[in-house]
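Need a sequence for this fold. Nothing fancy.
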């Protein structure tokens, strides 16, 4: 008599995934912990970075506010000092317009004739004589050759020289005597050189910048006296 054997297939037919989980439960648990730790760390770092960025923006804003306050206080202190010395801000404002016009007249020309016209304008408008230091040493008469017909050929034109004030003059009061204000004026002058026209070359222009210190006195009626100038120290800047 053949006995029927029942085969318990419970172990054989169990889901493969459940067996894998039982055999690798430790590994899976460690992996889950690692993923959780990395996620939490990333979120924490992102939050800290955002807070640091916000903090830096706040610091930058406060620095800007402090700088503005410092500038305002410095300007107020300067005004108080000037007022205590009897210096009038409205007078400086008026004199600044006179000084700006003077330096632009002196340093703006693009030919020998324009240079000579600027000298004449200075002499007539500000009552200067040829004996003035400014006209003798700093802005002497233009050199030229003259042909039989009287036509002048200026050295300035031969070199293709031009001059212009490059920026607003920087003006400082150095002395006040009664109604006369003496100023030191820093002027940046741009000089250019054109290609000589008769050479028929490309219009190559080389520009250089030099700083000039101008000293002058202005009285309450706007009369200018004591005009002089010297090249400021430092190298000449060039651009091409």
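Here you go.
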């Amino acid at each position: 008599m053949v006995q029927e054997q029942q085969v318990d297939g419970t172990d054989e037919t169990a889901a493969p995934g459940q067996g894998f989980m039982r055999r690798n439960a430790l590994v899976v648990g460690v992996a889950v912990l690692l993923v959780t730790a990395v996620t939490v760390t990333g979120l924490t770092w992102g939050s800290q970075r955002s807070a640091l960025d916000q903090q830096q923006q706040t610091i930058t804003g406060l620095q800007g506010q402090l700088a503005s306050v410092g500038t305002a206080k410095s300007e107020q202190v300067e005004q108080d000092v000037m007022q205590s010395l009897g210096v009038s801000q409205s007078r400086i404002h008026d004199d600044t317009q006179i000084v700006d016009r003077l330096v632009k007249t002196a340093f703006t020309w693009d030919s020998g004739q324009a240079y000579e016209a600027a000298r004449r304008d200075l002499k007539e408008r500000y009552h200067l004589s040829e004996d003035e230091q400014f006209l003798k040493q700093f802005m002497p008469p233009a050199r030229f050759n003259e042909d039989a017909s009287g036509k002048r050929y200026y050295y300035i034109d031969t070199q293709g020289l031009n001059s212009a004030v490059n920026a607003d003059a920087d003006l400082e009061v150095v002395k006040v005597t009664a109604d006369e204000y003496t100023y030191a004026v820093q002027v940046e002058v741009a000089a250019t050189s054109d290609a000589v026209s008769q050479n028929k070359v490309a219009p190559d222009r080389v520009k250089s910048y030099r700083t000039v210190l101008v000293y002058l006195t202005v009285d309450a009626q706007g009369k200018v006296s004591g005009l002089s100038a010297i090249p400021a120290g430092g190298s000449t800047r060039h651009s091409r």
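For context: The longest strand covers residues 180-193.
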